[in-house]
Amino acid sequence: MEVHDYLRILQARWKIVAVTTVVAVLAALGASLLTTPQYEAKTRLFVSTSSGASVQEIYQGNLFSQQRVTSYTELLEGTTLAQRTLDKLGLGDLSAVALAGKVTASSTPDTVLIDTAVTDESPERARDLANALSDEFVVMARELETPEDGGPPTARVVVEQYAATPSSPVTPKTTRNVALGLAVGVLLGIALAVLRDRLDNTIKDRNAVEDLAGTGVVGVIPLEKARQEEPAIMFAEANSGDAEAYREMRTNLQFLEVDNPPRAIVVTSSLPSEGKTTTAVNLALVLAEAGHSVVLVEADLRRPRVTKYLGSLGDAGLSNVLAHTAALEDVLQPTRFDGMWVLAAGGLPPNPSELLGSAHAREVIEDLRSRFDYVIIDAPPLLPVTDAAILTNIADGALLIARYGKTTREQFARAVGNLRSVNAPVLGTILAMTPTKGRGTAYEYRYYYSSDKDGAAPAAAPAAAQTSTPATQRVGAPAPTAPAAQPAPQTQAPVEGPARPQNGHRHVEPPATQAYPAPSNDAYHYRAAEQFPPAPQPATERYGSEPYQAPQAYSSAEPLSRPVVHAPRRPVNDSGSESGEER
Q1: What is the Cβ-side half-sphere exposure of residue 380, based on CA atoms within 13 angstroms?
Q2: Final residue before a domain boundary, out of 458, 484, 509
Q3: What are the annotated GO cellular component locations (predicted)?
Q4: What's the domain range around 220?
Q5: What is the pLDDT of residue 567?
Q6: Per the omega criterion (within 30 degrees of 0), is the bond before 350 cis?
Q7: Which of 57, 91, 389, 506 is the one with CA 20 to 30 A from 581?
Q8: Contact 335/341 with Cβ under 8 angstroms?
Q9: Are residues 362 and 431 in the same domain?
Q10: How far apart, in whole angstroms, are the C-alpha atoms of residue 239 and residue 233?
Q11: Pairing state between β 39-49 and 113-120
Q12: Same domain, yes or no, for 96 and 181?
């Protein structure tokens, strides 16, 4: 590991270092406050011998004294002297062993001086013990050094300095302890952070995603706090990091296959709560911003969440269409965003996998492909259920999401394996909820565009589109409308949209009409839901054990001021009837 790797770890896991440091400092401070103060009293002893008149005798006497100093330090710390000191002071509450543990004797090299220190909780008793101990040692040394025949002692010890009453405790040393706690906490925190990073098996960079999936990363979505309150991005007003990330994703999708770009796209993940629904909603919005007609299919028939982001979508939806209890035209619903439609989940069926794997599900997806430029499918996660793998087989492919710091490598590899096992194509991967700060983790632009030009065609294109073959002309434009089951008034005729060229790809130009302003890349046009004439009260049908209620038309407080535009219809063939597949 290099230095910047450690810096990255510390920046990503600074909380571990901070918590460990705080705990260590508090522990050191607490230990210091709980420790009983100890006072130390010191005395100094001088050792000498009787010397002769010659230089040689003086030298031998000094050498003898230095040898005696080593032995005397051992005697000063012994229990014999401690007991004699206690007897002299009359301290019965202290044992000789305990007092010996309080005594420390040391000598300065090449000298005949001995320093004695005695510690105690009381400064006065520490002083008394040190002085009494020194006096008793003088007597003890005289007894030991006096010959048996009664001659003069060979060595003599005198107290050179008596102890004074200490004014401050020697322990605890609070400042030193806190400093040591700080140092230990920082070092221990760094070690734990590095260890935690080594043991962390979650995905944190795009290289890991590319290696596991075998495909490129089409988008890196940063985590913005605003998305927690309002998941759907208003791209007309948004210049945030996540808005630009979705615009980059839109561009990357268009270049996955230049000749035949994917149009029916499944958005899924390994496990729940990894950002798949938020990504699907905003991917549909950013495609609609570029002038494309987009339908968002809520194919998670177990835990639908699109309603949470786009508001109430009615009780009928995809499950009702697949169960043949509702027509697709009746449940396709416009949104308040230009060019974006929604096919809600509908009632929650007991057999989602069977419905999504039916032949009718393939027909519904193909029907939507013929009506819209893009079909974005919000699918369930791959590991708990097989619904997403089934849907990917009838779509052009899947975008697989990995959540930064949550999705593990094993989970992501298993999700990719589930798709590969059924020969479902993986169009690309998305690294979602990445931190917005930090080296190697924040959203980084792979390319930079001065303005987003990847969506709309030139303004003169509608005129050229009129020369297309009538057999491929699409009836209607993808704009908000009432459900197809509701008949329009005789005076309100559908507005024709641009024709589909011979290559099978629909132009993205808006209809040349005064009623609807043309979308562009430089400005995103927002309009509220239109008001439609009230629909007749539908009859109540049954879906399983639950009654099915056909959806009602959207309404607003403003009166209808322009022609009603019906939902996009299938392309028509030369005989004028609807065709099941695109030409």
Answers
A1: 17
A2: 458
A3: plasma membrane
A4: 205-458
A5: 60
A6: no
A7: 389
A8: yes
A9: yes
A10: 10
A11: antiparallel
A12: no
Q: Are residues 186 and 131 in the same domain?
A: no
d(CA 401, CA 383) in angstroms, rounded, equals 13
Q: Is 460 exposed, middle or buried (0-12, 13-18, 19+ CB in 10 A)?
A: exposed
- 526 secondary structure, DSSP code: B
CA 65 to the chain's CA centroid: 73
Dist. CA 394–CA 310, nearest whole Å: 26
Each residue of 469-498: pLDDT tens digit?
333 333 333 444 433 433 433 333 433 433
Distances (CA, A) of 33 to 24, 167, 168, 172, 177: 14, 19, 15, 8, 10
What backbone torsions phi and psi does residue 119 show, to the nearest 5 degrees? -110, 145
d(CA 328, CA 339): 18
Q: Are residues 310 and 396 in the same domain?
A: yes
Between CA 109 and CA 44 the distance in angstroms is: 14
Instruction: Say if residue 44 is in the same domain as residue 127.
Output: yes
Q: Are residues 260 and 374 in the same domain?
A: yes
Distance CA 377, CA 298 (A): 6
Q: Is 116 helix (H, G, I), strand (E, B) or coil?
A: strand
Instruction: Tell me the three-class secondary structure of 149-197, residue by residue.
Output: CCCCCCEEEEEEECCCCCCCCCECCHHHHHHHHHHHHHHHHHHHHHHHH
In angstroms, the CA 352 to CA 299 distance is 9
Q: Return the H-helix or E-strand segment holding 403.
A: strand 397-403
DSSP H or E segment with residue 400: strand 397-403
Total domains in the chain come to 3
Residue with the two structure tokens 């290099």? 2
106/232 same-domain check: no
Of the two residues 307 and 239, the one the predictor is more confident about is: 307
In a domain, residue 54? The reply is yes
User: Using one digit for the tens of pLDDT, what is the confidence trace for 120-174?
Assistant: 999 999 999 999 999 999 999 999 888 877 777 878 899 999 999 999 999 999 9
Annotate 306-322 with DSSP letters as a single string. HHHHH----S-SHHHHH
In the block, which residue shows the tokens 């979705």? 246
426-434 and 217-222 strand pairing: parallel
Same domain for 212 and 340, yes or no, is yes
The Cα-based distances of 264 to 256, 356, 362 in angstroms read: 13, 15, 11
Structure tokens that stand for 386 in this block:
């097989």
Question: Taking a C-beta distance cutoff of 8 angstroms, is the pair 372, 339 a contact?
Answer: no
Question: Residue 299: what residue type?
Answer: A
CATH number at residue 256: 3.40.50.300
**How many Cα neighbours within 13 Å face the side chain of 407?**
37
Rounded CA separation 463/193 (Å):
63
Predicted model pTM: 0.58
Question: Is residue 524 in some structural domain?
Answer: no
For residue 184, give both structure tokens: 């230990």
